[in-house]
Design brief:
10 helices, alpha/beta, 39% helix, two-stranded antiparallel ribbon, TIM Barrel
Length: 279
């Protein structure tokens, strides 16, 4: 597995195993175990996914040394603020069965319950993140679903800049301005829903491109994500697909095809505007 280097010099495997909608039961444990067996060394979970204990169980069962696996989790929407962050982070450690996480993200910039106070609340949350980072309990801190104005606001009080912004990035949903802004500020883009949560499989241009390269549509998407400098987080509970989604290093998409895929505007919908969601 290849690595990106984060702005604080921590190395992160270039593909992560996504677990959104992966259940917190044997199916979830087996999915993460299959991923680890297939060679993934980066697992992306969240308090809000409700499956941290399945992830923790799989990590233990795999027998792979903890230090060889990069685990990301995210602060849930109902627990913003300094004290809430501290409390819920301890629960994350218990659920994952570990004494540190590799990365911890603010999952959403302005959940509904903080919609009027998100600027102040994120500043307090981030202070807790920075303390946990300084204490060695988190190796890198970051954000998710932040748009430019949320990042600018956070930077007014942050001592440590976010190492990543995890956003929805997939064919036809490329958030170009935000991507350029993050790249300019050395914030790595993590791409969730790199397969458009499965919707990409019915897009004819993707089928044609997959045939042309002799690859699957999923492999084309993941390769496209990597060639953009993103860190894709494909999700699957099927062991064959899990293996397939990692087999993306032996070919290269042409510039022309990269542009064509980016230009499939809206083919799998668009990311939610955090300022307008009702959660
Ligand atoms: P499953 O979990 O049954 O494999 P995203 O990563 O964009 O959220 O997309 C996840 C969706 O794509 C899931 O429905 C998953 O189904 C499906 N999926 C993941 N990998 C593949 C693959 N290689 N081929 C077909 N479907 C896939």
């Amino acid at each position: 597995m290849e690595f990106y280097t984060l702005s604080n010099n921590v190395k992160i495997p270039v593909i992560g195993f996504g677990t959104w909608q992966t259940p917190n039961d044997d199916t979830g444990v087996n999915a993460v175990l299959s991923a680890l067996k297939a060679g993934y060394r980066h697992i992306d979970t969240a308090q809000g996914y409700g499956n941290e204990s399945a992830v923790g169980k799989a990590v233990k069962l795999s027998g792979i040394p903890r230090g060889d696996i990069f685990i990301t989790s995210k602060l849930t929407n109902s627990m913003h603020g300094y004290d809430n962050t501290m409390t819920s982070f301890e629960q994350t450690l218990r659920d994952l069965g570990t004494d540190y996480v590799d990365m911890f993200l603010i999952h959403w910039p302005n959940p509904l319950q903080y919609r009027e106070t998100w600027q102040q609340t994120n500043a307090e949350t981030w202070k807790a993140f920075e303390e946990l980072y300084e204490a060695g309990k988190i190796r890198a801190i970051g954000i998710s679903n932040f748009r430019r104005h949320h990042i600018d606001e956070l930077m007014k009080t942050a001592k440590i800049p976010p190492a990543v912004n995890q956003i929805r990035l997939c064919p036809g949903d490329t958030q170009d301005e935000l991507v350029a802004y993050c790249k300019e500020h050395d914030i790595l883009l993590e791409a969730y829903s790199p397969l458009g949560t499965g919707k990409i499989f019915s897009v004819p241009q993707m089928r044609e491109t997959a045939e042309k390269y002799g690859k699957s549509i999923a492999q084309i998407c993941i390769r496209w994500s990597l060639q953009n400098g993103f860190l894709p987080l494909p999700k699957s509970v099927n062991s064959d697909r899990i293996t397939e989604n990692l087999d993306v290093f032996g070919f290269e998409l042409s510039d022309e095809d990269m542009k064509m895929i980016a230009g499939l505007t809206g083919c799998v919908g668009f990311s939610n505007d955090p300022d307008k969601t009702n959660w």
